[in-house]
Amino acid sequence: xxxxxxxxxxxxxxxxxxxxxxxxxxxxxxxxxxxxxxxxxxxxxxxxxxxxxxxxxxxxxxxxxxxxxxxxxxxxxxxxxxxxxxxxxxxxxxxxxxxxxxxxxxxxxxxxxxxxxxxxxxxxxxxxxxxxxxxxxxxxxxxxxxxxxxxxxxxxxxxxxxxxxxxxxxxxxxxxxxxxxxxxxxxxxxxxxxxxxxxxxxxxxxxxxxxxxxxx
Length: 216
Fold this sequence. Notes:
- By secondary structure, the chain is α/β, with parallel strands linked by helices.
- The protein has 9 helices and 9 strands.
- The strands form 3 sheets. Strands 5-4-3-8-9 form a 5-stranded parallel sheet.
- It is globular, with a radius of gyration of 17 Å.
- The chain starts with a helix and ends in a 23-residue tail after the last helix.
């Protein structure tokens, strides 16, 4: 067992996915299934901490939210827990991951689950294709102001193109995670052309010491 694993075990106990109380970060006070061997930063309040303040600020003024690339529901659960947000759509194409997300919701107040709709599909700009939806399909169900969190590992521009009606006809606030300088530039160009003001949130200085390991 390496030093890093020994330290994690000392802090969080035996690794493995199980329900844990979250004491720091966005989900402070809630419960979530966390594997401390791979997601220990969630327990330390450091998981994507760079965008935490922006997420809180935008969620505070939102009425509905769409989590595009919801994964296990970390952000979708946060959105559903906000008193002003009455409807949440969580988009995730992997059925097993959707079930994991549902289990995370079931650890918390029933009201959070009741106001959330899980959509097992990819989100992009492809109408009428199996397992694909567009944000524009949900214009009527997303009340203003709308908070959009987009993290789709490279398909961000496709998601924006499929949401042009929503983005130009509703009061929307966005958090978009991009995975290359080219994608960052492309997203900014499209959003700026639609009248949005964009701000780049860079990595924190401590990522040199505590990196977030990602495939891309």
